[in-house]
Amino acid sequence: AVLIEAMATGIPVIATRSGGPDHIVTKENGLLIDIDNSSQLADAMEQMMKKSQEYSAGKIRTRTMERFGQTRVMEQYDQLFLE
After folding, report:
1. Packing angle of the helix pair 70-82, 57-68 (nearest 10 deg)
2. CA 52 to chain centre
3. Is 64 helix (H, G, I), strand (E, B) or coil?
4. Residues with Cβ < 8 Å from 35, sequence gap 6 or more?
5. What is the dihedral of CA 41, 1, 20, 33, to 10 degrees?
6. Residue 11 in 3-state DSSP?
7. Are the beta carbons of 6 and 24 closer than 8 angstroms?
8. Which of 11, 36, 38 is nearest to 25 (CA)?
9. pTM for the full model?
10. pLDDT by residue for the chain (83 residues), tens digit each?
């Protein structure tokens, strides 16, 4: 939920490959690193500080709302009830 909240405001994220984030984080909205890999985390943080301007806050927010916004979630609930 924290990843989606950050992305909904247009902020790119850094997350670990731990199941859920693998399906949320893309190269357009952030960086994925291996679990328990402090050197990857340090590299990702440095890269994010240097290149954060290359991410489009508008695109991150728009895509996040398309995938996880209230309208999309309600459509998914409707589909579940219909099934």
Report:
1. 20
2. 14
3. helix
4. 16, 17, 18
5. -10
6. coil
7. no
8. 11
9. 0.85
10. 899 999 999 999 999 999 999 999 999 999 999 999 999 999 999 999 999 999 999 999 999 999 999 999 899 999 999 99
